[in-house]
Specification:
This protein has an eight-stranded parallel barrel with strand order 1-2-3-4-5-6-7-8, surrounded by seven helices. Strand 6, helix 8 and strand 7 form a beta-alpha-beta unit. The radius of gyration is 17 Å and the shape is globular. It is an alpha/beta fold and 232 residues long. The chain is built from eleven helices and eight strands. Bound molecules: cytidine-5'-monophosphate. The site of cytidine-5'-monophosphate (C5P) has 14 residues, from strand 8 and helix 10.
């Protein structure tokens, strides 16, 4: 899979997501389904979006004991998604179990990527609540390395970290990066952002774009602009 734009479909009902996806008659976007939509509509929403010809990143961020994660990943693998994810904090043993669960009898499996530290966790919470005393940047890189060593395919990270992740874990280790905004767009609640063109320059493999597309007056035009800046 080459570079692509993944549209974060942060909707709470099937109706909303289908109204949105119906606008795309030309190129079918790679979509991200998160907890909100999955918990509202269940696994059927994944099957239906897949049937419409979209590739799917199922963003459920699993984090549990290895056996539970392994069995749950086997269920997600049967849904025929393209990418799924988990928390690297679940340990290497949990990540290896996840890979085992994901692998189908014929040896194929969806890509598996890890969340290192959530961008909503700041240095203060890391140190005072989680009692992790190392600097945030080192923790993120160390978790990325753990994921790589466990055999995962990449990490979700800020585009600002993409270069460092690639130099630490190799070019082939995927960086899937949210926090993308157009140069003339609204930043919203994101703090550190890059444009699609900048994300391309720093080597992001996939950008995850939500509101700049879903809340645009013309979502198809906004999506095409992302493709032009990031892919073409
Ligand atoms: O609307 P926006 O472009 O900010 O959406 C970004 C998407 O990426 C959302 O689904 C958000 O939950 C997700 N995400 C993020 N930052 C992370 C991890 C995931 O924005 N560190």
């Amino acid at each position: 899979m080459g570079k692509d734009v993944i549209v974060a479909c942060d909707f709470s009902s099937a109706r909303q997501v289908f109204d949105f996806l119906d606008k795309f008659t030309d190129r079918k976007p790679f979509v991200k389904i998160g907890m909100e939509l999955f918990y509202a509509e269940g696994p059927q929403i994944v099957r239906e979006i897949k049937k419409r010809g979209h590739r799917i990143f199922l963003d459920l961020k699993l984090h549990d004991i290895p056996n539970t994660v392994k069995k749950s990943m086997a269920v997600l693998s049967n849904l025929d998604v393209d990418i799924c994810n988990l928390h690297a904090a679940g340990t290497a043993r949990m990540m290896s179990a996840a890979l085992e669960g994901l692998t189908r009898p014929d040896g194929t499996r969806p890509l598996l990527i890890a969340v290192t530290q959530l961008t909503s966790t700041d240095s203060e919470a890391l140190e005072n609540e989680l009692l992790i005393k190392e600097p945030m940047a080192d923790v993120v890189m160390h978790y990325a390395e753990n994921a790589k060593n466990a055999g995962l395919d990449g990490v979700v990270c800020s585009p600002l970290e993409a270069q460092a992740v690639h130099s630490r874990c190799g070019k082939g280790f995927l960086t899937v990066t949210p926090g993308v905004r157009f140069a003339d767009g609204d930043i919203g609640d994101q703090k550190r952002v890059m444009t699609p063109a900048e994300a391309k320059k720093v080597g992001s493999d996939y950008i995850v774009v939500g509101r700049p597309i879903t809340a645009a007056d013309d979502p198809v035009a906004a999506y095409n602009r992302c493709i032009e800046e990031f892919v073409d």
